User: Fold these one by one.
Assistant:
Number 1:
Amino acid sequence: MPLSDSRLDQYVVDGRRAEIQSHVDSLLDTMTLEEKAGQLNQRSVHFVTGTEDEGEELESAVADGEVGSLLNATDLETKRHLQELAVEESRLGIPLLIGFDVIHGYETIFPIPLAQAASWNPDLAERAERIAATEAAAAGHNWTFAPMVDVSRDPRWGRVMEGAGESPVLGSAFARARVRGFQGDDLSDPDTVLACAKHFAAYGAVEGGREYNTVDVSETALRERHLPPFEASVEAGVGSLMNAFNVHERIPASGNESPLNDVLKGEWDFSGVLVSDWASFREQIQHGTAENRRDAARKAIQAGSEIDMASEVVIDELPDLVRDGEVSEDRLDDAVRRVLTVKGLLGLFEDPYRYFDEERRDETMLADKHRQAAREAARESFVLLQNEDDRLPLDPEADVALIGALADSGEDTLGAWSFEGRPEDAITIRDGLEAFLDREVPFTPGYELPGDVTEESIEAAVETATDADVAAAVVGETAEITGEAASRTEIDLPGEQRRLVEALVETDTPVVAVLMNGRPLAIDWLAESVPAILDVWHPGVEGGPAVAETLFGEHVPAGHLPMSFPYSVGQVPLAHDRLPTGRPGDDGESAYATGYIDAPNEPLFAFGHGESYTDFAYTDLTLSTAAIESGETLEATVTVENVGDVAGRDVVQFYVRDLVGSRSRPVKELLDFETVDLDAGETAAVTVTIEDVDLAFWTVDREWAAEPGAFDIMVGHAADDIVHTQRLELLD
Ligand code: NOJ
């Protein structure tokens, strides 16, 4: 069956699709079972070049056509050499896919993805990925294992830094943008790479936030919360998806036929390629659902997975499985056809060496315009969590003391998952401040990374602060305690950073906090003791200048949280789109209402929260009609005024509540959003279009539908700061 998918076709220039198809078909006709299995075998270069023997073994496997793709190859020469072996030595000369985790930039490291989502500006992410793709492709890669589109509402999970936070709506907008950014206009351009939406599916729901743990979500939660960003990626024409490590319905994702074959390839008609996560085919054995390697290979391929990343069960077992009639050759051909098709789309059959050009690589990396984009992205991602007494922005004439080891750490400025980013290329907050002020800034680390303090370190910090007009305390997480395999059960500032902050607050010098982090933190004590907190996440290679420009008011912060900050880890998981429960406690009177006896239900800083150096006022939320029929659309409009003294950007957030449904519906859900730039005193009308599909959910009939009835359409500054509500009727 030829693959015909118009969504992937948008990345192919006219007429090439048919040509690719016929080339793929003629290859398939001549391939042996071993060569077919080879196309599904992905090997890691990083882990085999440890010894000479291992290196030679990989070389001969590539030359024998037993490898279809690579990951973790870093230097250009190795990539070229292995590609030459595939093209010139293997019998059919099929080029390799060469993949890498390009998560938030290649050498020009952008803010971590969670930070980018805080901009609520998907165009920013598209630009960032365009640049990341240009650099990665110039370094010999043609495939990135990104974007991660897992929705998560558990900040204990270290990987939340890689995603877009808790909302399927915001997550889908960023998923689409990232796919477009990586894949560009034409996948065969030498500056585009194949994207990979991961981890399919529901990896963001690991129990207890514990990495690699079990997932147990209902079909409704899967459909409404976890699948939408994947569907959005498929709609945007993503060329590949990656299996999750976790189980769904107790079946490991790699071998789980229902989401793969029924939803992804059935309902969504996905025609790209599905790669496992690292060794996840084999890990079905550890999960206890496969008896041995042969069983693992059979289950994965039958379920609809294709490429085996690093476990080598497919190359070892699949040819015999087909010969013994346990896997049909048709299924094998379908899998191989998908792999060969993406190779064709990338233009690898025409020129397998298109990604290896030293001159292009040297000109491309860390180009000025890339750094400039990274700086803009960093600025847009900062969230002013609070700013009592307008303590920020700071006066550039004031004597500023800088405290905190994170302010001086290149590695932590970059953040996790920045393999090709070099700490020495990062402009730290310390360097950024000094360059901005054009003078030396008194600095004391105050703690040792990630957070150890001594009496002496605190004393030195207090002394530095005491001599200054204002102290900026840079506190938070190191990159190392965020990202993969970095789940935490405590999500306060690490170590004893709190002691340091408390000592600084005791001085007569006003303190502002700059927070560096890869996840929402439980920092209610910080919010109580420090009036101004600017969250800069792990801001990337241009983080320092961006922080300086924001602290001193040259840039007005406009980021808003993509994920709730809890008071304590005990509230987790929490998100703005929770269900009401039978005892919502709205009357504020009943003791027998949902809640805790020692904490509120609401977060410390809600989803969508973010302050500015100016203020925005909303008037007149209007709906173009109060009632629509199925298939009709309406417009919701609000007037936004910048009522402060400086120009700024507002993120206007529209929420919805379906008042009565066949299933309980969230108290509010993000519906849509718009950013608007306004000068001081300026007013603008902001309009979003609402279709009945925006009101749809996974109904009791197990289908997406908008049920007739009443809906509240809300507009606000954050999920916990709704300003206006209007009632809408969906007619029968
Ligand atoms: C494991 C991670 O879960 C996945 O996201 C990544 O792409 C692979 N390793 C390859 O590095």
Number 2:
Amino acid sequence: MWAEKDIKKVLVSEEQICNRAKELGAQITEDYASKPPLLVALLRGSVPFLAELIKHIDLDIQYDFMDVSSYEGTESIGDIKIIKDLDTSVKGLDILLVEDIVDTGRTIRTVCETLLHKGASSVKVVTLLDKPSRRIVDVKADYVGFEVANEFVIGYGMDFDQKYRCLPYIGVLKDECYQNIEE
Ligand code: IMP
């Protein structure tokens, strides 16, 4: 595969992700049995996870997308801005926010507050990865795929300067990949 030369290590394999998505889907199915949620996926990182997760939610769910500004390179940039809003009204709906990774927590805090402000009945968060050691804002995801250490990760939707999103696993890049981009 083209990216193999850039990968220092694989943290979570495709098989592990699929198995965990099955477990999360079953839990979500149980928890929302009386009223299916609207899944709100944050572009673009959460798309592969959303696609896997919805196969395992056995409810009449719908999904929509939001795009918020987040990272340039490996560092956070200032405040979160909404670049693309939802097409669906959230009034009276139970929302399940789908995220690729919760890092400082700023993104999910801002988006959750925005959705509640717009009249959502409830907002919960499902994230493929959680990096609790980097938390700045006191927030907790309701459903977590895997907890990871304080390392920048790529793959399964997550990018480094828009690269590596399409890898079917989650990995860590070799140090020289960051140096190359700075030159
Ligand atoms: P937060 O607002 O700091 O929690 O950042 C969340 C967003 O930052 C995620 O949706 C990702 O787009 C990005 N992000 C945070 N950590 C990583 C990482 O290790 N790899 C790739 N993107 C990351």
